[in-house]
Amino acid sequence: MTTLERELLIHYDREIVQRICSKYGFSPMKALESFIRSQTYAMLRDPELAMTEFSPAGIFDMWEVEQITGDPRDSLYLRRDEVDA
């Protein structure tokens, strides 16, 4: 992992954790643990998926959808081709 990739992950970690804490009242550690154990985070770390092209709001939506449905791929951010059709 390059320095830039590490810096990007740190940026996403901060943004997503802040959003989780604000919306769900989690402590920062609980929010971070929930995020880094998620499929969404695994997808974000996979360079082949190029998830860093999504905004933090998009990544948060994927994490949130994963909490509800069990699959971050149910997010409208990833299904937009299906919605546009």
In short:
This protein is mainly alpha-helical. The chain has five helices and no strands.
Write up what this structure looks like.
The chain is mostly helical. The protein has one domain (3-84). The protein is 72% helix and 0% strand. Helix 1 crosses helix 2, helix 1 (3-24) crosses helix 4 (56-69) and helix 3 (39-45) runs antiparallel to helix 4. The longest helix is centred in the N-terminal third of the chain and has 22 residues, at 3-24. It is globular and about 30 Å long.
What descriptors fit this protein?
single chain, 85 residues, 5 helices
Sequence stretches where pLDDT stays below 50 over 5 or more residues: none
- Broad structural category: mainly alpha
The total of beta strands comes to: 0
Shape: globular
Determine the fraction of residues in helical runs and give it as a percent range.
Answer: over 70%
List the helices and strands and how they pair.
Blueprint: H1 3-24, H2 28-36, H3 39-45, H4 56-69, H5 76-84
Helix pairs in contact: 1-2, 1-4, 3-4
